[in-house]
């Protein structure tokens, strides 16, 4: 059996294979609520044969959205909409599904990517004031964020906990805490964006404090059968920024706290980044972290071919593979990978007529 198609356990959750659908924002929500686009999009991905689906970044507060069209999980209306989406998906698929929760910080209040993606100032329609560890804008021409106060930090922790509780109440199997790609928790980690002089800034211990506090609060509040993973950027790709050495220290602390997996990406913190983009360019980061922790590590980033994904697992560089743009381009990527590698994936009986090698029926009640 190819490594890619062997089961894997993330804490209380067992996946049929090691293909994970990475969270990808659709910028198609209204007032934080998922819309018909999300029904067809996630319904399609739930029939892909992957081992787990991660729903796109869902903001823990309205001001934490990347854009005005982001999904939210800050109130009962958001919870009910996501719950209905999951209920409909689960009629025809038993693929484990979780939700990524996060706060965009200084990278909030932006336009949709296809409309330019730049910051929308508070004075413009669909714009608002942003906040961050320090009053340092993402782009030099952006409106500077307001430095978050300590009472607001305490409230932010409660917002993350409440969001996790809503995700569980909606019926999902777990959450992924978004501490990557230059969003708020990552902003606290990096010395480039965090110039605070209090217990949340300065030393590595202080800069890690908020993420670890959020993680601990969620783990203390949610039951043990609810999976909690974390996504990080292992490096800013900027000299003097967050880097692999600091990520190793963070990973070990999360591991000791019972983190169920670490999803290793990189970059996104500042425009000065110099990313050596190419196939497997983030895999060495995952490999270095995997060598230091016992929890599973997910590799992601320009992993596009089945043989490539299989080699990463066979060589012990990661425990699972996440697909993002590749599975948008080819939503049946796991089917084709199974056919190439001589394995099997589960599919609904409605698709049996295509009968490629490696496809078997999954009968649903």
From TrEMBL:
The keyword 4Fe-4S does not apply. Residues 4-340 form the NADH:flavin oxidoreductase/NADH oxidase N-terminal domain. Its cofactor is FMN. Keywords: Flavoprotein, FMN, NADP, Oxidoreductase. The keyword Flavoprotein applies. It holds the Pfam family Oxidored_FMN. Transmembrane segments: none annotated. It comes from the Bacteria. InterPro entries: Aldolase_TIM, OxRdtase_FMN_N, YqjM-like. This is NADH:flavin oxidoreductase/NADH oxidase. It comes from Shewanella electrica.
